[in-house]
Design goal:
By secondary structure, the chain is of the alpha/beta class. The chain has two domains: 185 residues, NAD(P)-binding Rossmann-like Domain (Rossmann fold), CATH 3.40.50; 81 residues, UDP-galactose 4-epimerase, domain 1. 40% of the residues lie in helices and 20% in strands. It has nine helices and 13 strands. It has a seven-stranded parallel sheet with strand order 3-2-1-4-5-6-10, with helices on both faces. β5, α4 and β6 form a beta-alpha-beta unit. The longest helix is centred in the N-terminal third of the chain and has 21 residues. It starts with a strand and ends with a helix. The mean pLDDT is 95.
């Protein structure tokens, strides 16, 4: 039997892209998610509710590498903690319940764990101060992963900053700006309603994230936590300007109060890349023009 790779949240944005990479590398890809999918190796399991099904799957398949990507910011406080914390707890309980089983495990964290730490690049050693439920939940997930690591499991946490690219959720700013700009272009112009365009974010293209995850998965998780980021600050207004430039549409931009910052938003979130560069031997590049072009191409193809 070929070596297998297990991805939780394999139906999600990063999960789908990573699963495609695993198959392209000639490995068996096992995936789980809450919604049924007609896909080889995929299992519809709610990891927050059905821990026994997860245990049975891991005991039977014993994948050598696990990417724990399940979770997200939606579903209200209760749903956020279930999808980000309970799933992580159940995963490590399931791994530890299989005698002699020692897979490599990479757990997806988030820049939201850091909170508002000012305008300087944030290192993995910074003291976390999350400001919303999602950041708190992801930090709890990270703490569970580090407990498992200290108990002897081969575990590392990869803290994602802002990922963009084909297949990203339509509610996120790059996708929403792109979709609405394309619609306005088709209509000959109009008004684009936005929120606060002053925040600064650290964007990475999903293709580069998958490359980094693949490389990290092929070795022992030597670091407890790694920022997965480009270290390149991008103002939200600059993101919108690039999208409008590539779409080729002139619009009136209006700010709506209901789209302004929520309780979990921070003015600046940019990662320090030094630790990741040392581990990967390179820096993750980010080309705003290229990533916007890839996103627009995927939306036009729908």
């Amino acid at each position: 039997m070929a070596e297998s790779v297990f991805i939780t949240g394999s139906a999600g944005f990063v999960g789908r892209a990573l699963a495609a990479r695993v198959r392209a590398e000639g490995l068996r890809c096992l995936g789980v998610g809450r919604t049924p999918r007609d896909e080889p190796g995929y299992h519809a399991i709610d990891l927050a509710e059905d821990a026994s099904a997860l245990s049975e799957l891991l005991s039977r398949e014993r994948p050598s590498l696990i990417y724990h990507l399940a979770g997200g910011p939606g579903g209200g406080a209760r749903g956020i903690f279930a999808s980000n914390v309970t799933t992580t707890l159940h995963l490590f309980q399931a791994v530890q319940a299989v005698p002699g089983y020692q897979p490599r495990v990479l757990v997806a964290g988030s820049a939201a764990e850091y909170g508002d730490l000012g305008s300087e690049p944030i290192s993995e050693d910074a003291r976390e101060r999350p400001v919303g439920e999602y950041g708190v939940a992801k930090l709890a997930s990270t703490r569970l992963a580090l407990v498992a690591r200290r108990r002897g499991l081969r575990v590392g946490v990869v803290r994602f900053f802002n990922i963009m690219g084909p297949g990203m959720p339509g509610s996120l700013a790059p996708a929403r700006f792109s979709r609405e700009s394309l619609a306005l272009a088709a209509a000959g112009g109009g008004c684009l309603t936005v929120g606060d365009l002053t925040p600064v974010r650290d964007y990475v293209d999903v293709a580069d994230v998958v490359d980094a995850l693949w490389t990290l998965g092929q070795r022992e998780p030597e670091e407890e936590i790694l920022n997965v980021c480009s270290g390149q600050p991008v103002r939200m207004g600059a993101l919108l300007e690039e999208i409008l430039r590539q779409v080729g549409v002139r619009v009136e931009v209006q700010t709506a109060a209901n789209l302004l910052r929520g309780p979990g938003d921070v003015p600046v979130s940019v990662g320090d890349t030094q630790r990741l560069e040392r581990v990967l031997g390179r820096r993750i590049p980010f080309d705003l023009s290229r990533s916007v072009a890839r996103l627009l191409e995927s939306l036009r193809a729908r």
